[in-house]
Amino acid sequence: xxxxxxxxxxxxxxxxxxxxxxxxxxxxxxxxxxxxxxxxxxxxxxxxxxxxxxxxxxxxxxxxxxxxxxxxxxxxxxxxxxxxxxxxxxxxxxxxxxxxxxxxxxxxxxxxxxxxxxxxxxxxxxxxxxxxxxxxxxxxxxxxxxxxxxxxxxxxxxxxxxxxxxxxxxxxxxxxxxxxxxxxxxxxxxxxxxxxxxxxxxxxxxxxxxxxxxxxxxxxxxxxxxxxxxxxxxxxxxxxxxxxxxxxxxxxxxxxxxxxxxxxxx
Length: 266
Fold this sequence. Notes:
Mean pLDDT: 95
CATH superfamily of the largest domain: Aminoglycoside phosphotransferase (APH), C-terminal lobe
Distance between the termini: 53 Å
Number of domains: 2
Largest sheet: 6 strands, antiparallel
Structural class: alpha+beta
């Protein structure tokens, strides 16, 4: 999978391959610079590479080369981790960094992004799941439909902003990777700060309320609107997990959704 690109772009392997559900990655050296060779295995990753090129290194990793399913990216070599920060007493600062990174990505660019995926299409799995399972999913679906019918502050979105998709690039600061190439209300991009299943504290209502204040202030979002996006996003995440099926992760997402719904009713 990597050999043809190693030859074509004159790359030197610099680590072990990393295999994920949607791509194959290999740390490499390109012109003596640390880089990451990424070969997509699904359509969302291919779309993401186009968005990375469009951002052109502003708020996101630089793209050094791109062809078909393969993209050669600037590699993060910093030691800091937002997930570690969030788990070690710096949750507020980690959330602020995520918000600042998202703001850079949302800034208008002179050239348009061709054919981004609208949020309405991204949410297409939620309503059928709500019809099947009802309960919390039905509440989330109703909120999502209302948000999508009345969008505000439209922007090109990352689509998957969380603690492991914003990395330490040392002198270049914190930069994003692995976007989904979406378009819609910018508030959507802040919901996953509350729903990253790798963070054990996401189901803690006290943590939720504190981060709601931090994120709404840093991002300039009305708390009620942010809560609605958290409920909608968590419902969509739960629908995807139920479809896998991954009941444990679905229940985590539904717990976050219930916390958001409770706060909306308060």
